[in-house]
């Protein structure tokens, strides 16, 4: 049995993440969904380094009391929860892969850049007005260069995804495992722009479904949109 941590964003709560649709996938595939909370409830940011013991304690409970397979523990998050997930991929030793939705790297002073990190997926809307406030395309490039700092900066594959009147551009960019861990960027643009975690039927892809498949259907050869 596996487990997926779902980290909420700024000024939100774990309960606010229930509508993301992880439970049907958990029932189908047999994993546990975990909704941690910030040490400062509904605060602006996670505590990063100070949250590592809390996350490790949750993992210990899952493995000891719920027989969760340590090799099948994943984390993802939205907005500041996604930035925390990206931090965890570098700092936590108890995760296999992470995902971030509408989020980039942050709090870089707490990253140990000598660490390699783990397999990561980022869902990024180039029309997101909130991401634009935090750097937009510069943050996008910085996120890739940080996660791929020891490997090639160019994807080995760009797979076009379905578009619509609302999703005007979308592609899956795949970066190979080399000196850096694998990275998948689900890069798209919506009109109008939104910071929301997009799903069916309001989007041509479902962010929740893609993260679940990225976590549990890896390697990439078996993971197809």
TrEMBL record:
The keyword Glycoprotein does not apply. It comes from Alexandrium catenella. It comes from the Eukaryota. This is Peptidase S9 prolyl oligopeptidase catalytic domain-containing protein. InterPro entries: AB_hydrolase_fold, Plant_Biomass_Hydrol_Est. Keywords: Hydrolase, Signal. The keyword Transcription regulation does not apply. GO terms for molecular function: hydrolase activity.
């Amino acid at each position: 049995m596996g487990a997926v941590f779902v980290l909420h964003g700024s000024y939100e709560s774990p309960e606010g993440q229930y509508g993301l649709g992880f439970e049907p996938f958990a029932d189908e595939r047999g994993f546990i969904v975990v909704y941690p909370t910030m040490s400062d409830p509904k605060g602006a940011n996670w505590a990063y380094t100070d949250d590592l013991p809390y996350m490790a304690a949750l993992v210990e409970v899952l493995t000891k009391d719920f027989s969760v397979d340590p090799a099948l523990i994943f984390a993802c998050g939205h907005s500041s929860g996604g930035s925390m997930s990206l931090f965890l991929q570098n700092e936590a030793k108890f995760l296999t892969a992470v995902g971030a939705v509408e989020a980039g790297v942050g709090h870089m002073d707490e990253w140990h850049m000598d660490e390699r990190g783990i397999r990561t997926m980022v869902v990024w809307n180039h029309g997101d007005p909130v991401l634009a406030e935090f750097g937009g395309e510069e943050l996008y490039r910085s996120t890739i260069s940080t996660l791929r700092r020891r490997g090639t900066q160019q994807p080995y594959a760009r797979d076009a995804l379905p578009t619509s009147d609302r999703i005007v551009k979308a592609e899956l960019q795949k970066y190979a495992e080399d000196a850096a861990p694998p990275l998948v960027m689900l890069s798209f643009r919506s009109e109008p722009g939104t910071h929301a975690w997009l799903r069916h039927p309001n989007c041509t892809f479902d962010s929740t479904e893609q993260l679940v498949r990225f976590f549990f259907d890896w390697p990439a050869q078996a993971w197809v949109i």
